[in-house]
Amino acid sequence: MADAPQPLARRSFLVTTGLATTGLATTGVAAGLAAAPAHAAARRAPGGLAGDPFTLGVAAGDPDHEGFVLWTRLAPRPLAEDGLGGMPDATFPVRWEVAADERFRRIERRGTAAARPSSAHSVHVELRGLRPGREYWYRFRVANFVSPVGRALTAPRPSSFGPALSMAFVSCSQYEHGLFTAYRRLAEEHPDLVLHLGDYQYEYRKGVYTIPGGNVRDHEGPETVTLAGYRQRHAQYKSDPDLQAAHHAAPWLVVWDDHETENNWAGAVPEAGSDTPDPADFRARRAAAFQAYYENMPLRRSSVPRGPQMQLYRRVRWGRLANFHMLDTRQYRDDQACGDGYKDCAAAGDPKRSITGDAQEKWLLDGFRRSAARWDVLGQQVFFAQRDNDSGPAKVTSMDGWDGYVASRDRITKGWLAAKVRNPVVLTGDVHAHWASDLKADFDDPDSKTIGAELVCTSITSGGDGADSDPASHPFLKINPHLRFYNNQRGYVISRLDRDEMRSDFKTLPTVRTAGAEASTKATFVVEDRVPGVQQTYLRPYVGIKSDTRADRDRIRETIENETRRP
User: Is the pTM of this model over 0.85?
Assistant: First the structure.
């Protein structure tokens, strides 16, 4: 049995967020966005650099029982319009260290990686040979500059359950719509693992995607279409100290949704009204978006893009406790049926339609058959359970979610039933609200067998503050009795997995418009071992207006607008 990782002390957290230094002298750590002119900075910065190159922080990802990926990207001027972060056109040696303690007295591994102009001076180091089930700390160094320190963990031995796993999952961080306080609060929870389920960044230019009350801050540059634009946008997001804190606190598993490229794209099809409507132009845009995504994420070499193609779906095993099946529901899907949006659409049930593509579906079903894990977790993007917003005979559902690909969903659920998956749990982002749901063998029959659970995290910022509510009064829950919870505030979900249960706290913040908001638990849901579905164990009382006199159709419209409002 692997030793249980020890919780972070106060000093440990300060180190991982870059607010304290380590034994090595540091120069220019935690530099702000306002850089000195390049010609002036170069005269006083070592190595020909225009200042501290570690303005984007550090990250770790895709852990297994022997190691993980380490990431950083050199960018002394992160908002440079050419997307290259103010770096010279030269390859830089980047030294890295991994230690068994946060003060780096016990160095376990060290080496040097090359940061090249062709990859925007990003660095990906894949580590092997570390001990399973352990905490590690890592950092980078270029010339006399030392990066912030990050914390990472290895998974337990494949034959071991290991200790309970603390896991957070998040989605939808629109920089303009609010401050990333939720990322900071997540980091303070000291999770062992973070799943980002899509919309890590948004493509819009300043002032296009606005919220009531006005945007809190602005994007730099035009809509992201070119490689330079995507690189600059990722750099703007990565420059945020709260996002950096979340990366420094734990390893991440990342998958994209649509906005990392363009709203509601599907396979080779751009969105209606796209800036790149020509198929060749959209392929070039995809290639640029995928290249920048890889450059800015802690992903393994298996995900290096090949033009407009990128292998993102993958499986991460956490000992015998959990399998994480990380899905890509954008790159291989058929175009949305009936012109997208919420529709009563017969074509959504076409058995030929797929949201995963044939190869990914076969890979997932094979993973179910081979699984011996206590929990099989699908980390994916769009709503899985049926959400009918019509109380009458029509079935009006979102064509962008799995409701637009009904046969695809049925094949997946039947696959985990045939494989006798012990505990299937679907984790979802995208819709800018917290939801919890029982997954049914037949969503049209409330008495049909419950076969799994879905937990949906709200957005980090997208949509603005939102508001608290009494979930029992929401018409979606009346029309769809398998839907068990709804809340429209910003936040994240933190779950604790052990052999007996998965306990998930739905965290919310009262505002993202001003700094310093505290997080609190709105609701707690438990999935018990071998008991499909969700059980609510806590709900924070609603203290707002006790009686919402609006018609159900108005509340349904508000919910749909919150998740689909676009320029």
Answer: yes
